[in-house]
Amino acid sequence: MTDFHGMQYMKKWLQIGLSLGLTLLIGYILYRGVPDWGQAWNVMIQGRPVFFLAGFSFVMLHMLLRAVRWGVLLSPVKPKISLKNLFSLTLVKYVINAIPPRAGEVAASVVLARKENVPAASVIAASLLERILDMLTVVVIFGFYLVFFAHLYVPNSERGSEIMLTIQNYSVKGFIILCLGFVIIGLLLRRQSWTSRIPLRIRRVLLSFLEGFRALQRGGALFQAIVLSAAIWLTISMQLWCLMQAYLIGFPFLGAIFLMAITVVGVAIPTPGGVGGFQFFMNLALVNFFSDYMSSQDPHSQAAGISNGSYIVSMIPVMLIGLIFMNREGLSLNRISRLAEQGQNIKQPRLQEK
Question: Which of 178, 214, 241, 313 could form a disulfide with 76 if both were Cys (CB 3.0 to 4.6 A apart)?
Fold first, then answer.
């Protein structure tokens, strides 16, 4: 047990070190890539407030849709889960994910499980299923964009062409891997005779975990989850379109879909709250694909101002509201760390038994 806790402690600090190291590296690359930070600041603060407000409205709609989808995925475990709990803990996830090692899904899932009296393993599995659905939905929406609309916004530089080729290759590979993952999960859910060979204590946790994926076998729940996933990412695209309109008059909605897909890559980099990665990839997209809407004199500084302003409107209000909900739940950093460790122990029962 002591060795297990020691490994967990080392893993936690390794994750923190990696996250902070990546943040510094991306921050340095961003700093060096912007010719005039004074100009970037001026661009950032000159956005049109009406579109900032519209963008924030879509941010909150996005959070509400996520909460509803979480409840739909958990409906086979418990039919009626409080939307209030789902919404507040969805926001709490984002706050916790701003703190390395980004254990928001695990900690929020454990809290929801206790409040709703359902197995924590099932809620963690449903949160994992959310992430899988997110990835698959982004790949499908972006694939539709590539097939029908990519010719409208071709790269204006050699670097842009390299970016597009890389995205196309990884989109195809990602789609295949995710589909295979769904097939494997479906087979595990349908044929559970293999679990009889597993020790009883571990089997109970494993079966509870698999229950979190049970929505894949419920036609109604699966259809609702797919529709909500599409709505979530189209809402995020609307959010980005409004934020682009705040700075760039006439920016196309289809361009916002491209920004949605490419900034997902940046947010996936394990920096606190996706900071740095979001700005870096948005800057790449704006400069290399949408130069017609940018300043011809200093597009890099303009892009930096737009990406920083978009990040602030998208994330800071969510963080502040999430902190209020965290306070209401009585969640401190120490308690969050303990909940995350408990969730990891649930997913690693073999280590727990030693």
Answer: 214
